[in-house]
Amino acid sequence: MERDDRSIADERSLTERSAPVREGVGSRSSDWERVERTSAFEELARKKRAFIVPVVILFTVFFLGWPALGGFTTLLDGQAIGAMTWAYVYGFAQLATTLVLLHLYTRQAARWDGLARRAREEAAEGGTGA
């Protein structure tokens, strides 16, 4: 089934609107390249990676552990507190972990905002911050 000319025109229009806008001599892509070359941006990328990679690994292992342990072992079947099993304790621990990670990420993001601001300032000054 062929698409009609109208949908192709709409698709082209959308593509043209999402293309980088040229402003004066430079473009948004050249502005971005200037920001990328600053020392503040390199520090920002390094710090984000150092925080995000271990947190994602921890989060994934911890959250996939619950269905894996609950579905394939009897480890979580035992009584923890009264009639509550270890599966419930693990589930509540996941909620607590999510809230702690949310708090940590929010604090880190505020610090990253300062580095991003510094990278924009360095790029505007035309330096690499080295």
TrEMBL record:
Residues 1-32 are annotated as: Disordered. Pfam families: DUF485. The lineage of its organism: Bacteria, Bacillati, Actinomycetota, Rubrobacteria, Rubrobacterales. The keyword Cell inner membrane does not apply. This is DUF485 domain-containing protein. InterPro entries: DUF485 (IPR007436). Keywords: Membrane, Transmembrane, Transmembrane helix. Residues 1-15 have a biased composition (Basic and acidic residues). The chain crosses the membrane at residues 50-69, 81-105. It comes from the Bacteria.
